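Report of the visiting student (M.T.), summer placement. My assignment was to run the structure pipeline on a short list of targets and document each run. The first record concerns D-stereospecific aminopeptidase.
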Amino acid sequence: MKVYISADIEGTAGIASWSATNLGDPEHRAAAQEMTLEAVAACQGALDAGATELYVKDAHDSGRNMDLSLFPREAKVIFDWTLTPDSMVAGLDGSFDALMFVGYHSPAGLPGSPLSHTMNRGNNYVKINGELASEFLLHAYVGAARGVPSVMVSGDKLLCGHAQEFVPGIQTAPVKEGLGRATVNLTPQLACERIREAAREGLLHRNRCHLAVPETLTMEIGFKDHFKALRASHYPGATLVDPYTVTYTAATVDEMMTARMFIL
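After the run finished, the structure tokens were exported:
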């Protein structure tokens, strides 16, 4: 079995500040170590369930955060960015049997973490067909459009609940919870144990994980800055609804993600 694992950092245990997410910051080293350990735990769970090929995407900011030396020999790790619409699941195609998300976080508009955001910190929310959209949901749709089920997600508690609303059969591993500007975190050992178990169970029961792709997808972005909304509105097909809000309706997930690459 061939498994794709997308790893972010804001939803990993122990992180409560933006500075910890920035390559080169003194706080980043420990955060990147935890990001690596949690991604490795997902790899181990997938291997426990019979996976034979693992592709892991370093999907945070620089795309160059994790320690390659800690991964199992079956893993191939993707560093940096392809600059393609599939973004955090770059290279995912129909040859994969399952998609997993590690270290993911609540979207902008959901108070699951002091680090809640969607793709960047320049918007108040992103919606698809009127529903708050997270980075998980955007990329789970990419998987669904290519016939790959999203079987497991780890991150903050509200993000895990959000994922279950769209993929009821998905296995979740909440490793932290937002508390005002603070986060309440599991220890690395317990977080990794739960991620490994969720990854194993998710892959074993992947046939339960179905995400329906709507016939049309209307993406709505509420920008923090009116001038960014104005700029985005010049993308072909985009509409400026009000000074801060832009919408775009796509017929396919690939079309939506291409628009997202340029306007969000």
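The first helix runs from residue 28 to 48. The chain is about 30% helix and 25% strand. I thank the supervising group for their guidance throughout the placement.
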